[in-house]
Amino acid sequence: MTGAFRTASGGRIDRSKPVAFTFDGQHLSGFSGDTLASALIANGIHLTGRSFKYHRPRGILSAGTDEPNALVGVGRDEAHYAPNLRATQVELYEGLKAESQNRWPSLKFDAGAVNDLASPLLPSGFYYKTFMWPAKAWTKFYEPKIRAMAGLGRAPEAPDADRYSQHYAHCDVLVVGSGPAGLAAALAAAASGVKVMLVDEQPEMGGSLLASRDASIDGKPAQQWLADALAELSAADNVTLMTRTTAFGYFPHNMIALAERVTEHVAVPDPELPRERLWQVRAKEVVLATGALERPLVFPDNDRPGVMLADSGRTYANRYGAKPGKRAVIFTACDAGYRSALDLAAAGVEIAAIADLRRNPAGELPAKALAAGIEVRPSTAVTGTSGRLRVSGAALTKMGEYDFGATQQIACDVLLMSGGFTPSVHLFSQSRGKLAFDPVLNCYVPGTSVERERSAGASRGLFELGAALEDGYAKGADAAKAAKGAKAPARAFAAQAPRLGTDGHIGATPHNRNPAFAKAFVDWQNDVTAKDIKLATREGFRSIEHIKRYTTTGMATDQGKTSNMNALGIVSDALKTPVPQIGLTTFRPPFTPTTFGIFAGAARGELFDPARQTAIHGWAAEQGAIFEDVGNWKRALYFPRGNEGMHEAVARECRAVRSAVGIFDASTLGKIEIVGPDAAEFMNRMYTNAWAKLEPGRLRYGVMLREDGFVMDDGVVGRMAPDRFHVTTTTGGAPRVLAHMEDYLQTEWPDLDVWLTSTTEQWSVIAVQGPLARQVLRPLLEGIDLSKEAMPHMSVREGTILGIPTRVFSVSFTGELGFEVNVPSEHGRKVWEAIYASGQKFGITPYGTETMHVLRAEKGYIIVGQETDGTATPDDVNLGWAVGKAKKDFVGKRALARASMSAPDRKQLVGLFTVEPQTVLEEGAQVVADPKAPVPVPMLGHVTSSYHSSVLGRSIALAVIKGGRGRIGQKLFVPMPDRVIEVEVTEPVFYDPKGERFDV
Amino acid sequence: MLIINCPYCGERPEIEFRYGGEAHIARPADPSALSDAEWTDFLYNRTNPKGKHAERWRHIHGCGRYFNAVRDTVSDFFVTTYKTGEARPDIEESAR
Ligand SMILES: [Zn+2]
C-alpha cells in the first residue's frame, strides 16, 4: 500500500527518501521523518491495538508521549525486541518490523473482544470484588488468566543484545523542552554566556513550531525562525543540544535524569554505539518548558479508531503530510479545535462540521472557520459514534437550555476532539514543587518551587505563541542570572499566531444515551469509563488517590497523561466539590516508560555483582575445585578427584588433614592492621579480651561485641609489636568491623592515637594444617624457627619464604597442628605452589570450605553468623572465657550486666548426637522436648551446624538449646515432615577435647 | 540525589555517604554507673523528630570521616554540616 492519505506537498518528511516497513506483516511504505504512527495514518490505518480490558479496537489517539492506545512491539529479532513502544514516538527506518499487541488471533478479529459484551460484569473494583476468595486461586488461576487476557506487550524471549551506557554532566542552565518557550529560554541563557543544555525528547527540536502552518515570528514563518534559532544555538560554544533525549526524572538538588535514544531510529546501528545513554545531569538552574497536553473529550464511543486529539490531527497534517482522514467531524470545547479544522481543510480534508460545547464561540479562530465556510454548530455535543474498526459517523446532539434537542448522524472517517490543554507539570511535580489550581484554565499549574527551577510557556498555562516566547526568554535570563549572575541582552519577539483563548472542558460531556450502556472513556489505556469513576464515588470513595487505585484510572503506563484532569472533573461533578478539594495524584518518575537496560548500564552478567577472587583462585580452578559464593568472594568448596561427589571428596580431605597435612586458601579472612601508641588500649575497648599483657609475637582469639552485648565478630589477632596488631575478622564481616572500629575511634575516642588500615586484599593467607605441617613448611622458611619450643601454638613470627617477607601464625581452625602463612598477595600463588610442591612427599591435600567447616565443627568452634544470630552473648556460645571480666569497660560490657543476659534458660551452644549415628540433621531444624506435645509445640532451639564426620564415623551437630548446658545427656527430638529424629545432647567438642593435637 | 557537604572534602553526591544515626549521643564515660533504664535509653531511644534533626554521616566512599549534619526530615534537605566534636549549630528545634 502506498501513502494514499499523503498531502500533496509540505511537512517535514523527506519525500525523496521512501522507507519500507511492515506492520503485523503487512508491507507498507512511508518517508524518512515519519513516525510509525504518521506512516500508518498516511496509509489510512488507524486500527493499531486492542484495549487492555475489553479488547475494543483502538486507534492512534495522539501524536506524542501521551499516546495510550497505539502501543506496538518493535524489533528485528528477539534480542532486539522492545514491547509497548508508542507508535507516535517510534521513528520509521528502512525494514522496521512492528506488531500490534494484546490481540488474538488477529487485530481485526480478537477473541478477547467478548469481554466488551460482558462489560456490565466488569465494573470498577471488579478485581477486588471478584477475586477475593479463595486466596490461593488468585495466584493459581485468576492472575494467570487475567494476565493472558488483559495485557500489554509480550516480553522478548532472548536476552537484550544491546549495550547501554551511563554518563554524568554538569551545566549552569538545563532547559527541558525545545518548543517556543524552551528555545527562547535557551537563547537567553546562551546569550548570557553560561553553560546551557537544551534537551528534547523528539528527533527534531521545535516542539509545537514543527506543526505550525501559518504562524510567524519576527516577520519570518515560524519554521524558518525555528531553523535560524537552532542555527544560532548550534553555533554557540556554550550550548549543548540533545534530541531524542527524554528528561524522565527530577531528583533532589537539581539532578535530572535523561534517557538518550542513540541508535533506536537507525536501520543498521553502528555497533560501537550504545542503544541508549543514561545522563545524570546536575544543573545549577533548570527551566522546565515541557509544554502542554491536549485533553480528550469524554463522550460515548470516544475510543473508536479514527477518534483522535484535534491538535494531533493537525500535527499529522502539517508536520508529517499525513491526512488523518478524508472527512472530519470536530468536537471541541475551545478554539484549538477550530485551528485544527482550518489546518486540515488546508491539507485537503473535508470538514463535515464543528460541534462546539460552547453556546457562543466568538474567538478569532471560530470567526476564521465561519469565514472559510465551515459548518459550526454551537451548543452541540457528540453523543456517540458509529463504525466498527474505524469511525464511520458521529451523532451530533443539540443541547437545549434544559434538555437535549435533535440528534443528527454525520458521516466521517475521522473525529477530532479538543477539551483544551493541560500544562505538562510532571517534572515540576517530581521536583516536589507545589501545584496551584488555575480556575480560569481549569487545570493545575506550577505553584511554589522547592528546587532551583522555573517553568516557562505552556507548561505553566501560557498557551499563546507570543506569551510563551516572552516568558521563555525571561525565564532563561532569570536562570542564567541565578546560576552565575550573568545578564542576558534584552530581546523581544514579534509573534503572529491566531489566539487560542482560555476555554476548555474537564470531565464528561453531556449525552442523552442510556447511561447503563454508554461507554465514554476517560483512561484509554486502562479501559476506565466515566461510569466507572461515578460508580466509585457512589460506593463512597472521595480521595482521588483512592479512586485512582479502585478504578485504575491514571495507573497505566502513560500515568494518566490524557486522563487525569477529566477524571478529576468527573469526581468533582459527582461529588459537587471543587477540583482543588479533591486533590491530585502524585506524578512519579519516569515521565515515560524507560528501559531497564538504561538503569542497568554495564552492570549485567559478570559485572552485575563482581566476584572477588583470591590470588590462588586460578590454581584452584585449574585443579577442578567447586566454588561457592561467600559474600562477593568465590571460595573453593571442595576439590573432587575423579568421579568423587562432595561427600566423598570432603571425607578424603578431612582424613588427609587429620592424618597427614592439608592446604587451604584462607585469604578471604578480613584483615585490619591496627597501629599506634594507643593500639593496645583501643583493642582493649573494642574486644572483650584483655590485650595489655599479650606479648609481641603472640596470638589471641578475640571476640567483638556490639554495644548491646551480642557477638558481632571474632578472629585471631597477632601482636606484631607493642604498637601494632594484625587483626583478622570473619570473611563477610571485614567492612562492618572496620566501620565499627572507625566509628568508635573517630567519634567516641578521638583522643586515642591509633590508625586503622584494611589489609584484607594485601595478604594471601595459606593455611597448612595437619600433623605433618611443620615438615612441609620448614624447608621453605628463612628466619623462622618452627620448632614447638621456639614457636608454640598461638604465636606469630616474621621472616621470609622464597625470599618474600611473611608473617607466619601458628594457629589452627582444624584442631590439628597448623600454620597460616601470610604473604603479600602478589606472591600468593607462587608461595602456594611452592608449599604444595614441598608437601607432595607428605601427601599434602588441598581442601575447601566444606572440609574446613566439618573440621571446625568436630572441634566445636563457632562460626559467627552460623552459631550466632545477633542475639547470642559470648557465654551463650561458650566464649565466656574470652571476656576480660577484670576490664573496667569494653564495647558491650554494660549490656552483658543486664540480668536477662545471664538468664539460665538462654539458648546455649551444645552438641547433638543422633541416636541413629548415620542420620545427618538438617541445619535450621527445630529441637523439641516432646514431639507429641499439642500444637504449638514448645521449641527449645535449633540445629546450627550439621555434618557427617568421617573421623568419628558418624554424624555430628551443633545446636543452640534453651538451658542447653544443663541438658547434656538428655534425649531430645528433631521433628521433620516425614519423621521424628531422636538426639542426645552432648558437649560441643567432639574431637580431641583436650587440644593435645596442637602440640605434636 | 542529594548533594552533601562533607566538612573535610566539600560537596559530594549522596551515594558517597552513609547514614550514622542520631548525633550528639555520647557514649557514657562510665557505663557501669548507669542503671538498666538509663543504659537502655542510651542504647535504643532516639528522638526521631519531624523537622530538623542532628545526625551523623560518614563520607565512607571519600575521606572516610564521620561528621554531623542538621537535616530537615520533612524536606530531606540538609540545613548544615559540621565536624564531629563541634556543638550543634543554633538552629531552631523542629515543631513536633
Ligand atoms: Zn569527606
From TrEMBL, chain A:
<keyword id="KW-0560">Oxidoreductase</keyword>
<dbReference type="InterPro" id="IPR029043">
    <property type="entry name" value="GcvT/YgfZ_C"/>
</dbReference>
<dbReference type="Pfam" id="PF17806">
    <property type="entry name" value="SO_alpha_A3"/>
</dbReference>
<feature type="domain" description="FAD/NAD(P)-binding">
    <location>
        <begin position="172"/>
        <end position="431"/>
    </location>
</feature>
<dbReference type="InterPro" id="IPR006277">
    <property type="entry name" value="Sarcosine_oxidase_asu"/>
</dbReference>
<dbReference type="InterPro" id="IPR041854">
    <property type="entry name" value="BFD-like_2Fe2S-bd_dom_sf"/>
</dbReference>
<dbReference type="Pfam" id="PF08669">
    <property type="entry name" value="GCV_T_C"/>
</dbReference>
<dbReference type="InterPro" id="IPR013977">
    <property type="entry name" value="GcvT_C"/>
</dbReference>
<dbReference type="InterPro" id="IPR006222">
    <property type="entry name" value="GCVT_N"/>
</dbReference>
<dbReference type="Pfam" id="PF13510">
    <property type="entry name" value="Fer2_4"/>
</dbReference>
<comment type="similarity">
    <text>Belongs to the GcvT family.</text>
</comment>
<dbReference type="InterPro" id="IPR023753">
    <property type="entry name" value="FAD/NAD-binding_dom"/>
</dbReference>
<protein>
    <submittedName>
        <fullName>Sarcosine oxidase subunit alpha</fullName>
    </submittedName>
</protein>
<dbReference type="InterPro" id="IPR027266">
    <property type="entry name" value="TrmE/GcvT-like"/>
</dbReference>
<feature type="domain" description="Aminomethyltransferase C-terminal">
    <location>
        <begin position="907"/>
        <end position="992"/>
    </location>
</feature>
<dbReference type="Pfam" id="PF07992">
    <property type="entry name" value="Pyr_redox_2"/>
</dbReference>
<dbReference type="Pfam" id="PF01571">
    <property type="entry name" value="GCV_T"/>
</dbReference>
<dbReference type="InterPro" id="IPR028896">
    <property type="entry name" value="GcvT/YgfZ/DmdA"/>
</dbReference>
<feature type="domain" description="GCVT N-terminal">
    <location>
        <begin position="616"/>
        <end position="887"/>
    </location>
</feature>
<dbReference type="InterPro" id="IPR041117">
    <property type="entry name" value="SoxA_A3"/>
</dbReference>
<dbReference type="InterPro" id="IPR036188">
    <property type="entry name" value="FAD/NAD-bd_sf"/>
</dbReference>
<feature type="domain" description="SoxA A3">
    <location>
        <begin position="519"/>
        <end position="601"/>
    </location>
</feature>
From TrEMBL, chain B:
<dbReference type="InterPro" id="IPR038561">
    <property type="entry name" value="SoxD_sf"/>
</dbReference>
<dbReference type="Pfam" id="PF04267">
    <property type="entry name" value="SoxD"/>
</dbReference>
<protein>
    <submittedName>
        <fullName>Sarcosine oxidase subunit delta</fullName>
    </submittedName>
</protein>
<dbReference type="InterPro" id="IPR006279">
    <property type="entry name" value="SoxD"/>
</dbReference>
